[in-house]
Write a structure and sequence with these properties.
This protein is α/β, with parallel strands linked by helices. The protein contains 12 helices and 13 strands.
């Protein structure tokens, strides 16, 4: 699913070979590498220039507020007193020190898992149309509005049942393989008296062991590591565990019509104007995705630890609205409004879905952000689809078909300027995707113990662009959202490289996959901003 728009393992063969633990995307672009020239920008163009901190809101699943690379750069509500149980600044939210959580209850509990939007639509229509789908039924007897609704019921019912069955089967299959693999790894470690099974240890074991009961699993594990391009058996174990967790989530929660976690929040889900719900816990129970996104934007560049974010003068505001499942339109709209009302100038939105039944309320919030001059950065999605024709929400256009001027839609690119320049999972669209940014093997912060890891997805590409936008706004504070969007798109590096079209065997020019046909580049963006600034001073 593309709930959090982070590519996940769903089978052993999908365990991707991880890049080294480096931030390749910060390096300069070359003929072979599609980096965005971050370090060169600070070294050559911004060295002696002053900056003003910019607030970037991360609407996501949660942020680890204790992480060593994030705690210094978190937004702090200047008018709120922590922990006193009062709404000191009278903004409607109690103790919102670092942001707000729209998928939590006033009693402190939090939504972790949620259904997919298609499941919620099916459940909503089921009482009216259950029993009619799949049996002889005179559709023509229904009124036109009911015909449309009935068709949606038939479609959602089929999709939910198909997905639940598919993911349940995959979950059971990979769980079985995991058990066999883990048993073999643990048994071999014990027999060889080693704590680690890397390729060197396995090669020696395969060459020297005479006991077939040990030699066979050693050769099998070694084969798996070579197939996946990793050096340690534990790498495969971790990826399998991630895949199992996500498959279980999809089968048991996302596509389960009987699952409902909304009671935790305690709001009226159908009251789209309601805003006074949630709690101040912006971390929540599943902060992996949001923590990774936040680190890409603004990981502390001064502490000599872990990673460095794209932006060096940023304050990260956490707005929790995206569970493990599809976000609700009501929560997204409220998250946007909260961010705008509390000073965010840029909002990162690394989430998306195929259905948006309350699309109007989201668009109202986007128009509100537009009226306040706030720039929205949105991930294009990970389905390998052309979103010029495939549904993807929040959409880059209003319902009336007009482009949303304060939105940048971002696809994911990879490190090498080769046929694999576009990440194989990335959505694309000549009319709907504005630009690409690094989104494969991106090294950033993860929660629970100051950890870091590589992740891939348009979720990782979107915060790269949000970071670029934050740099422009912090060093050139007079720039409007429109200026920043124009500069980012005009300065992006175009590529005509022939690449494989995602989810297809076709070959296409990279330049045909987005409006710009380009990958963002911070150096070129700052250079253009400097040139325009000099031109204004010369007038």
């Amino acid at each position: 699913m593309k709930k959090l728009l982070m590519v996940a393992s769903v089978s052993l063969l999908s365990v991707a070979a991880s890049a080294q633990n480096t931030q390749w995307y910060l390096r300069d672009k070359t003929d072979s590498t599609a980096g965005i020239s971050v370090e060169r920008t600070y070294r050559e163009l911004l060295k002696n220039r002053k900056s003003t901190p910019v607030v970037v809101a991360v609407i996501d699943g949660g942020i680890d507020t204790t992480h060593e690379d994030l705690k210094r750069v978190l937004w702090v509500n200047p008018k709120e007193i922590a922990g006193n149980g009062k709404d000191d600044d009278k903004n409607g939210y109690v103790d919102d020190i670092h942001g707000w959580n729209f998928i939590g209850g006033k009693d402190g509990r939090n939504v972790s898992y949620e259904t997919a939007e298609v499941t919620r639509l099916y459940v909503k229509l089921k009482p009216k149309y259950e029993g009619k789908a799949g049996v002889a039924f005179d559709r023509a007897s229904l009124k036109p509005a009911e015909q449309k609704e009935y068709d949606l019921f038939v479609k959602t019912k089929a999709e939910v049942e198909k997905n639940q069955k598919q993911y349940q089967a995959q979950y059971q299959g990979i769980s079985g393989f995991y058990t066999q693999y883990k048993t073999a790894v643990d048994g071999l470690k014990q027999a060889l008296k080693v704590s680690k099974l890397d390729t060197l240890t396995l090669r020696k074991a395969a060459d020297t062991l005479t006991d077939a009961a040990l030699k066979r699993p050693a050769m099998g594990i070694l084969r798996v590591l070579r197939q996946q391009g990793v050096a340690d058996a534990e790498d495969v174990t971790k990826e399998l565990e991630k895949g199992i967790e996500q498959l279980k989530s999809r089968a048991e929660y996302n596509y389960n019509p009987d699952f409902d976690s909304r009671a935790i929040v305690g709001d009226n889900p159908n009251d789209l104007k309601q805003r006074d719900y949630g709690n101040a816990d912006i971390m929540g129970p599943r902060a992996d995705h949001g923590t990774h996104v936040a680190g890409i934007i603004g990981g502390d560049r001064t502490n000599n630890l872990g990673i460095m974010g794209v932006a060096d003068a940023v304050r990260i505001m956490g707005v929790r609205a995206v569970p493990d499942g599809d976000e609700r339109d009501k929560d997204v709209a409220n998250a946007i409004r909260y961010a705008v009302d509390n000073g965010a100038q840029i909002i990162n939105m690394s989430f998306g879905k195929d259905y948006s039944p309350e699309r109007e309320v989201v668009e109202e919030a986007e128009r509100y952000a537009l009226s306040k001059g706030v720039l929205l950065i949105h991930a294009a999605g990970n389905d390998g689809k052309d979103i010029d024709t495939a549904a993807n929400y929040p959409a880059p256009r209003f319902i009336d078909g007009k482009a949303i001027p304060n939105v940048i839609t971002v696809g994911a690119s990879a490190e090498r300027n080769t046929s694999e320049l576009i990440a194989s999972f990335s959505n694309y669209g000549k009319q709907t995707v504005d630009v690409f940014a690094p989104g494969k093997d991106i090294y950033s912060t993860v929660p629970q113990g100051n950890k870091y890891e590589n992740n891939s997805g348009t979720s990782m590409a979107s915060p790269v662009v949000a970071g670029v936008a934050a740099v422009l706004k912090s060093y050139f504070p007079k720039l409007t959202y429109a200026d920043i969007k124009r500069i980012i798109l005009q300065s992006a590096t175009p590529y005509s490289t022939k690449v494989g079209r995602p989810e297809s065997e076709d070959t296409v020019a990279f330049s045909d996959l987005s409006k710009t046909g380009a990958v963002v580049n911070l150096y070129e963006a700052v250079k253009l901003a400097l040139a325009e600034e000099a031109g204004m001073k010369g007038k």
